[in-house]
Amino acid sequence: MTVGLVIVSHSARIAEGVVELAAQMAPSVVIAPAGGTDDGGIGTSFDKVQVALATAESGDGVVVLCDLGSAVLTAETALDFAGEPERIRIADAPIVEGAVAAAVAAESGAGIEQVLAAAQDQAPAAEPATAAAGASSPEGAAVLEVELANEHGLHARPAAELVRTASGFDAHVTVNGVDAKSMLRVLALGLDHGATARFEATGAQAAEAIAAIERLAGEGFGE
Amino acid sequence: MNGLDGAWTRRWIEAVAAEVAARKSELTALDRAIGDGDHGENLDRGFQAVLGKLDSLDSQATPGAVLKLVATTLISTVGGAAGPLYGTAFLKGAMAAGDRDELDAAALVEVLTAARDGIVARGKAEPNDKTMVDAWTPAVEAASAAGGDVRAVLEAAAAAAAEGAAATEPLVAHKGRASYLGERAIGHRDPGAESTALVLRAAADTA
Questions:
Q1: How far is CA B21 from the centre of its chain?
Q2: Shortest CB distance from A77 goes to which of B42, B75, B176?
Q3: Nearest CA to A43 among B45, B193, B102?
Q4: For A43-84, how does the pLDDT look when each residue is reduced to its tens digit (9 = 90+)?
Q5: Residues A154, A103: Cα–Cα separation, whole Å
Q6: How high does pLDDT run on average in chain B?
Q7: Alpha-carbon distance B11 to B207, whole Å?
Q8: How far apart (Å, rounded) are the C-alpha atoms in residues A202 and B109?
Q9: Which of A79, A103, A147, A174 has its CA 20 to 30 Å from the CA of residue B65?
């Protein structure tokens, strides 16, 4: 069981495309599309949103991602009619980035508030990948430096593997200075093939987290 | 005449459906200028669906029951922002009407106020944002101040809504798709404010 997601778009194809993209990184999360009007036109459908909310609810709640204004209005109206509105959260986030970040968080077993926070986490402007490398580490931090062998660097799928792995430990984990549990922040680093990724972990399971990331890196981050 | 009953509520909604059908192109043209060009078609689809469902209501249905049917049908069938907004308006109006068999002047003011408050809560627009709130708010204020019988209340609301709709023309939009246009929205009437004026005019004309 994980938190489910609902993708509300004016276009059926956008909703399905976002589901397709996010599902690639979160195979066990139920992500339900609610795109277009009932007769297949451009717009949003209250009934489709209601059906999608029911589909995505598997006991842990649902986070809703929306595109333009009236998609939010339709989702909020559906909330008014929901039996347990407190189990549904509407994210204030860009639909594609928010859905991907939320899906990765849900896949790692995060609760509804954490999934919502992952979706709404604003990705900072990408900093040069080397900026944090070589910076002084917090005392007692477990550290790992890896040269990225992946052909396309730490792009979406390997980044999702990293976020899922890091999220599994009771530790604060960073990669080149940003939160390694945040999909959007990891992606914003833009780490390409051959770049150096510096991982630092502190906290109760810091050593275990770094060991797991070392194993993951050895497997090419799942690629 | 004292109050307005379920039969009036049906006449009102049937008149709205007829007016929306007749002015569909005009509403869509307003929306094409500053929005996504579907307001007339969307509302027409919604109110035609309402017409199809009115027959299924008990002939003794209260005003509140009719308004609730309108609300749920519009929410399910309109497809644009107008669906949730008008749907919420009619739903809150239905709740304010409760199970009363007739709406007197004071009850009508309550219904209109609840409808306006529902739209504001749903759309989070404020006066002068160039939205339907700019027709609803003067309508509610005029209805509250009207005194007199149900006709006087609805006539005041309809006239104020029409003035409010016309007054959206010089405004820059702060909500909805028109807000992307900045000053280019100046000179165009807001389609939601215009359809609000239509809905309230029909209410007055059928009372």
A1: 15
A2: B75
A3: B45
A4: 899 999 999 999 999 999 999 999 988 899 999 999 988 888
A5: 18
A6: 93
A7: 9
A8: 62
A9: A79
Model pLDDT, residue A126 = 44
- The dihedral region occupied by A36, where left means phi > 0, alpha psi between -120 and 50, and beta the remainder, is left
The pLDDT of residue A163 is 92
Could you tell me the pLDDT band of residue B37, with boundaries at 50, 70 and 90?
A: confident
Q: What is A179-206 written as a DSSP string?
A: ETT-HHHHHHH-PPTT-EEEEEEESTTH
CA angle, A39 as apex, A5 and B51 as ends, to 5°?
A: 115
Question: Quick check: A135 pLDDT over 80?
Answer: no
DSSP letter for B63, please. Answer: H
What would the two tokens of residue A32 be?
A: 């339900």
Candidates A70, A76, A92: best to mutate against B (most CBs of B within 10 A) is A70
Residue B134: predicted pLDDT: 96
- Separate counts of helices (H) and strands (E) for chain B: 9, 2
User: Span A143-172, mean pLDDT?
Assistant: 91
Euclidean distance between CA atoms A89 and A65, whole angstroms: 9
Decide if B38 and A42 are in contact by the 8 Å CB cutoff.
yes
Angle at B185 between CA B184 and CA B186, to 5 degrees: 90
Q: Which of B42, B79, B84 sits opposite A77 (nearest CB)?
A: B84
What's the pLDDT band for A137 if we cut at 50, 70, 90? low
